[in-house]
């Protein structure tokens, strides 16, 4: 959260729920989806209870049923990451329901009620930040409480300065003060936790956020109209609304401002006539909404796989480079590389300054061993996209990898050192730099980089070069530093990660041989020979050890030729 480019999210309760899921069924997705559906059911029940405060039972039931099946909730329920939305919604509704119930009790304690409501809001905040807005909703609710016979008179007396403020109005002011104070305290602590910096959004994540007046304000208000339309008629849903999905409202004369005017006009009309709306009128509004949802549900749902999800999104939205980028990744994963490259090129064409498409395209070209084209892509990324973010370490890392594969180790070294200026806690960078330095014969410097990588992340299993890095580190300790203890530790670490690693087994036997522990070396070679009976040099080395044991002669290390090198 303290890193400047962090999105500043802190959602420990959401993470805890994932950990509990993982402890039961690890990465099996079915369990995660079951939990999401159960949480959605809880949200629907709470929503039904909330509706009972404002609508008749039949209208409340229909409203909650509509809420349960509304297509706009699909992503929050079916997507595993939607867990944050579901948990925060539960906390939000619990806080609001508790507060409403507390206002109907004859003897209520404002401090206790606001404290419990604030606690529930904080729990929601620890699931997703938006839950804290329930405190503002509770403040607004204070203005819409059922009419109190003395309310008008109390306000008139207060404005005219007559008499003492009524207990009803005093209680209202105290509650608003307590809720506002709690919200400000929580926001301050949250701000401190973020390193006293607000999250930085790029124009790719939120184009309106970085726009100037009046474009920013007009776009934000138009987005409210778009969301309202999707609630009423969810016919063009998309899995991603970032980037240029919705073009910015450029000025006052933009015709889309009419949608904003209609939205606010309708809102104020309903607000003005709220008390005159009978329950059957509300029912009619709900029925119309339900019909629009029914028409959408009758269409075949296409979000069953990632491929169909992004295909469906592209049929709705051709302006979002991120969707093309994601589709390219799906195609890449199923080895349809030419189609993946086409989608990455399309993403770059739509958003030429989005570094992710360059990185993905460069990776595919590297995997296809088209190193020259990959290097050209990374050069473009390095020269153009890095003008937006000079600290984008993946750009240096990926370009360095390609340069290393092209045997341009000095240029690769420059890229890695440049990346380390911005991120010294990245084990990938230290491993790759260590390999480059080993390639140049600078073994002591390489050893230093390998040690740094292991200090940062001792179990760096996800990185493909980790085992090679450990083997290289052990090789340096055997051949140059003569530190056999460290070498043995490295080989054993490799065998923990890859129990069948032939090189680690063989070189561990060499360590025993170098210590002149011939009996242990013999047992080691016998063990590895049972695993790899067709490898001739292991048989040869076993014979050397047995001859030494038979003759009782001293060993010289050249008999075995040293540890087997890493390819």
Overview of this structure, please?
The protein is an all-alpha fold and 567 residues long. It has 26 helices and no strands. It has helices at 12-25, 29-51, 57-69, 74-78, 83-103, 110-125, 134-142, 151-160, 167-193, 215-232, 257-272, 279-297, 306-316, 321-333, 337-350, 355-367, 371-383, 393-405, 409-420, 427-439, 443-456, 466-479, 484-497, 502-514, 518-531, 536-551.
Please render the helix and strand layout as text.
Blueprint: H1 12-25, H2 29-51, H3 57-69, H4 74-78, H5 83-103, H6 110-125, H7 134-142, H8 151-160, H9 167-193, H10 215-232, H11 257-272, H12 279-297, H13 306-316, H14 321-333, H15 337-350, H16 355-367, H17 371-383, H18 393-405, H19 409-420, H20 427-439, H21 443-456, H22 466-479, H23 484-497, H24 502-514, H25 518-531, H26 536-551
Helix pairs in contact: 1-2, 2-3, 2-5, 3-12, 5-6, 5-7, 6-9, 7-9, 10-11, 13-14, 14-15, 14-16, 15-16, 16-17, 16-18, 17-18, 18-19, 18-20, 19-20, 20-21, 21-22, 22-23, 23-24, 24-25, 25-26
Enzyme class: transferase
Subcellular location: Endoplasmic reticulum; Membrane
Pfam families: TMTC_DUF1736 (PF08409), TPR_1 (PF00515), TPR_16 (PF13432), TPR_8 (PF13181)
Which key features would you list for this structure?
567 residues, mainly alpha, 67% helix, elongated, TPR_rpt
Short description:
With 567 residues, the chain is mainly alpha-helical. The protein contains 26 helices and no strands. Helix content is 67%, strand content 0%.
């Amino acid at each position: 959260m303290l890193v400047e480019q962090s999105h500043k999210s802190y959602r420990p309760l959401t993470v805890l729920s994932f950990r509990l899921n993982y402890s039961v069924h690890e990465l099996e997705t079915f369990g995660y989806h079951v939990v999401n559906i159960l949480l959605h059911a809880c949200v629907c029940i709470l929503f039904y209870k909330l509706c009972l405060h404002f609508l008749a039972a039949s209208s409340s039931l229909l409203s909650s049923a509509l809420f349960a099946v509304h297509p706009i909730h699909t992503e929050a329920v079916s997507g595993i990451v939607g867990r944050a939305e579901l948990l925060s919604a539960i906390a939000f509704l619990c806080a609001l329901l508790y507060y409403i119930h507390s206002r109907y009790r004859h003897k209520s304690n404002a401090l206790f009620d606001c404290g419990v409501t604030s606690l529930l809001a904080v729990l929601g905040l620890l699931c997703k930040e938006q839950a804290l807005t329930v405190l503002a909703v509770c403040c607004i609710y204070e203005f819409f409480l059922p009419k109190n016979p003395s309310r008008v008179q109390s306000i008139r007396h207060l404005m005219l300065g007559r008499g003492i403020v009524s207990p009803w109005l005093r209680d209202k002011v105290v509650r608003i003060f307590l809720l506002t104070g709690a919200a400000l305290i929580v926001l301050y602590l949250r701000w401190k936790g973020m390193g006293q910096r607000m999250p930085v959004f790029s124009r790719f994540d939120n184009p309106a956020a970085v726009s100037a007046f009046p474009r920013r304000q007009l776009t934000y208000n138009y987005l409210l109209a778009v969301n309202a339309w999707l609630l009423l008629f969810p016919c063009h849903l998309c899995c991603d609304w970032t980037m240029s999905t919705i073009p910015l409202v450029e000025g006052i004369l933009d015709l889309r401002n009419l949608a904003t005017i209609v939205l606010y006009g309708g809102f104020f009309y309903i607000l003005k006539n709220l008390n005159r709306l009978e329950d059957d009128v509300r029912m009619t509004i709900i029925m119309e909404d339900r019909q629009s949802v029914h028409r959408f549900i009758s269409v075949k749902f296409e979000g069953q796989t990632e491929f169909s999800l992004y295909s469906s999104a592209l049929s709705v939205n051709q302006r979002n480079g991120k969707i093309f980028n994601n589709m390219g990744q799906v195609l890449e994963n199923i080895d349809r590389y030419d189609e993946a490259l086409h989608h990455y090129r399309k993403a770059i064409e739509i958003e030429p300054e989005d570094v992710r498409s360059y990185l993905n395209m460069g990776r595919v070209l590297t995997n296809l061993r088209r190193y020259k084209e990959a290097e050209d892509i990374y050069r473009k990324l390095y020269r153009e996209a890095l003008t937006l973010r000079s600290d984008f370490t993946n750009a240096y890392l990926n370009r360095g990898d390609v340069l290393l594969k092209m045997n341009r180790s000095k240029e690769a070294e420059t890229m890695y050192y440049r990346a380390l200026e911005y991120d010294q806690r990245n084990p990938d960078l230290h491993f790759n730099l260590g390999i480059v330095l080993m390639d140049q014969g600078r073994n002591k410097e390489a050893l230093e980089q390998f040690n740094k990588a292991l200090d940062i992340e001792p179990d760096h299993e996800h990185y493909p070069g980790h085992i090679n890095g450990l083997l290289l580190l052990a090789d340096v300790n055997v051949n140059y530093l003569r530190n056999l203890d460290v070498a043995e530790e490295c080989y054993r670490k490799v065998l923990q990660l890859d129990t069948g690693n032939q090189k680690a087994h063989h070189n561990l036997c060499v360590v025993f041989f170098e210590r002149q522990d011939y009996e242990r070396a013999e047992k080691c070679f016998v063990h590895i020979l049972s695993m790899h009976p067709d490898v001739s040099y292991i048989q040869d080395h076993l014979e050397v050890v047995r001859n030494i044991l038979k003759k009782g002669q001293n060993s010289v290390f050249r008999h075995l030729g040293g540890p087997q090198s890493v390819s």
